[in-house]
Design the sequence.
């Protein structure tokens, strides 16, 4: 389907990327869904919460999977036209939304604006450059990097992903025995010195030159502790001296990270007993509204919708002027109790805490019999969510602690042929007994008598070749297997090149180079499997040619994709080196360990592997059908050698020529002529 404008299609097309089931953001209140064509990209669980007035919905496996979200956007553009705006408010979706905005030339934050709020190493570098207090930090590259770090910073230390959320992947190391065997992770990690001071989160709006509305809250327990099975709570701070110190620190930290208007969720260590008054040390910051119950507390207690402001900022609208406001009026707080067992599971008991004194004013619980899903909004799908209000921080904390102590939630595994019931979970939000699995029964839906067959779709896959009653020669199976598997490997390789370009747009050079290594290996594999065609006798192939029609390798979707994604990568790389003032000749005269050098070599590897495939393909083709003949598409076979010299990244090949022309051997030759 292609987009064809009509009278109704004059309405602006707004795309919203969301993974929430709960109304953390009231999209249909923020934007009139009648005067706008509002379409949604979401996951299966959250699709049920899309407003009924939505113009369209596309479901993806994960909203932070850039490739699938890009595909969903293409579908929406085909049906509704180019977007005027793209909104993505969840922390893990921010960069995906920014890349889509950049691709579509929509207003709102770009990847380079958000990266200092997502990549903690870049974040820490900016704070350090501003001379502001923060923990000692360094890149994590393996066991030795930790030992080198603690030689000056001491134990314990934290290792965390440079890009992550909700303390996922965070590890506390307390002594040398914890370090033994540590190896570099698949994604970039950061080492950080450990700080025992209480952690506060600060939420509000940064106007670009100072704080707008804001409030500071002290965590009760930690996000890392919640990952390990403990409850997580928060109480708004009512101590004027602590709020004054936090307000000044927050303004300085945010000024070091951006000069744009942003919603913010900032975390700081606070030493309330420091000489001279409370002192703050930076932990991390996000250009987003805080998670958990923060949006609800702000709307219900303080009459201010942080999500609405964040939504408008992504539409490119200005922040409404307002005087800075810290903690005033009612003090708020919230509590999260973890799931009673690993989801998905079925709740069997959840005790309401409403009406208790002290207790919450609001709670979100599943009723017995309801399913707790395996969702990817981490603080949404939990064992219990509670909100508190009171006249002081102490009053709210007392209610929070009492609720955490008295609340009970139990669950059981989901009824399924592959699971045997094994009792309910324990109380207090701790993990319960795990289900005992009957491994003889498949769990997945689909065709096939095993989960392997159903997941791999082997029934469909193995039916794609011509059957015994269709073939005119038994070697058609060999011929189709080589070509169909080539298309699969090229599908993977091209997806990785496309993702490498997307990662490079966000500044993730190392991730881009790693993905290109996978792409080049895919081409190496399809080059090797061409050897199977050496076993196809020339006369036998003449029989096979009679059923190929006008089919030709020039029509291969895989090779057409290779051309497209290579051009995309070249464009992004050229833009990157220009924006960062990189001279390629100087780069190649420098260290091969430079991240951009490694990326350039990964691009060369992809380019070269394709040329090597073309060489081998040409030799195989002439071995089977000879020279000075035409293929099934009417193309002379001797056209193939001309493609071998084609280069996707000619500027990277020219560098080598320049190095030779300006190298010491050339200089010596010129000196000899003088």
Sequence:
């Amino acid at each position: 389907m292609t987009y064809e404008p009509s009278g109704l299609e004059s309405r602006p097309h707004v795309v919203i990327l969301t993974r929430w089931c709960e109304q953390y953001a009231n999209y249909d209140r923020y934007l009139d869904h009648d005067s706008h064509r509002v379409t949604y990209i979401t996951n299966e669980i959250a699709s049920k919460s899309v407003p009924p007035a939505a113009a369209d919905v596309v479901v993806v496996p994960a909203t932070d999977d850039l490739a699938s979200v890009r595909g969903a956007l293409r579908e929406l553009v085909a049906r509704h036209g180019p977007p005027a705006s793209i909104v993505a408010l969840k922390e893990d979706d921010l960069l995906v939304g920014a890349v889509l905005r950049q691709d579509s030339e929509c207003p709102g934050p770009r990847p380079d604006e958000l990266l200092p709020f997502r990549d903690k190493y870049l974040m820490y570098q900016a704070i350090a450059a501003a001379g502001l207090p923060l923990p000692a930090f360094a890149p994590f590259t393996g066991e030795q990097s930790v030992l080198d770090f603690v030689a000056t910073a001491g134990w314990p230390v934290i290792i965390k992903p440079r890009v992550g959320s909700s303390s996922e992947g965070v590890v506390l190391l307390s002594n040398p025995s914890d370090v033994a065997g540590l190896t570099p992770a698949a994604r970039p990690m950061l080492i950080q010195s450990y700080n025992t001071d209480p952690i506060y989160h600060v939420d509000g709006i940064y106007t670009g030159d100072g704080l707008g509305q804001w409030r500071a809250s002290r965590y009760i327990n930690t996000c890392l502790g919640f990952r390990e099975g403990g409850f997580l709570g928060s109480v708004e701070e009512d101590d004027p001296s602590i709020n004054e110190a936090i307000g000044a620190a927050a303004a300085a930290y945010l000024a070091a990270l951006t000069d744009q208007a942003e919603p913010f969720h900032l975390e700081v260590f606070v030493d309330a007993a420091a000489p001279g008054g409370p002192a703050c040390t930076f932990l991390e910051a996000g250009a987003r509204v805080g998670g958990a119950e923060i949006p609800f507390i702000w709307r219900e207690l303080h009459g201010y919708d942080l999500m609405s402001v964040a939504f408008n900022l992504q539409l490119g609208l200005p922040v409404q002027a307002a005087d800075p406001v810290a903690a005033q009026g009612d003090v708020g707080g919230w509590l999260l109790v973890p799931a009673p067992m690993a989801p998905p599971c079925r709740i069997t008991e959840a005790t309401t805490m409403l009406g208790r004194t002290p207790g919450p004013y609001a709670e979100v619980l599943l009723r017995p019999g309801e399913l707790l899903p395996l969702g990817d909004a981490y603080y949404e799908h939990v064992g219990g969510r509670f909100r508190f209000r009171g006249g002081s921080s102490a009053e709210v904390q007392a209610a929070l602690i009492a609720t955490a102590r008295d609340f009970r939630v139990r669950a059981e595994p989901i009824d399924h042929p592959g699971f045997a019931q094994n009792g309910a979970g324990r109380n207090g939000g701790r993990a319960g007994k795990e289900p005992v699995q009957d491994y003889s029964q498949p769990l997945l839906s689909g065709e096939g008598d095993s989960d392997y067959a159903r997941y791999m779709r082997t029934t469909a896959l193995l039916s794609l070749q011509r059957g015994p009653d269709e073939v005119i020669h038994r070697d058609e199976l060999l011929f189709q297997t080589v070509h169909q598997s080539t298309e699969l490997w090229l599908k993977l390789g091209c997806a990785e090149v496309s993702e490498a370009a997307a990662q490079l747009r966000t500044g993730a050079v190392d991730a881009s180079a790693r993905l290109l290594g996978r792409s080049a290996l895919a081409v190496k594999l399809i080059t090797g499997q061409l050897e199977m065609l050496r076993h196809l006798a020339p006369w036998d192939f003449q029989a096979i040619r009679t059923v190929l029609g006008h089919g030709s390798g020039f029509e291969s979707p895989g090779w057409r994709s290779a051309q497209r994604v290579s051009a995309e990568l070249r464009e992004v790389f050229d833009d990157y080196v220009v924006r960062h003032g990189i001279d390629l000749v100087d780069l190649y005269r420098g260290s091969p360990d430079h991240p951009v050098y490694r990326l350039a070599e990964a691009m060369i590897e992809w380019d070269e592997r394709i040329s090597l495939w073309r060489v081998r393909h040409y030799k195989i083709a002439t071995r089977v059908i000879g020279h000075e003949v035409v293929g099934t598409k009417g193309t002379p076979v001797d056209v193939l050698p001309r493609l071998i010299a084609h280069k996707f990244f000619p500027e990277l090949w020219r560098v080598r020529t320049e190095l030779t022309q300006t190298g010491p051997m050339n200089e010596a030759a010129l000196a000899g002529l003088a």
Remarks:
- Residues 1-8, 321-327, 416-437 have pLDDT under 50 and may be disordered.
- The chain has four domains: 8-107, 136-193, 199-406, 476-662.
- The two ends are 69 Å apart (CA to CA).
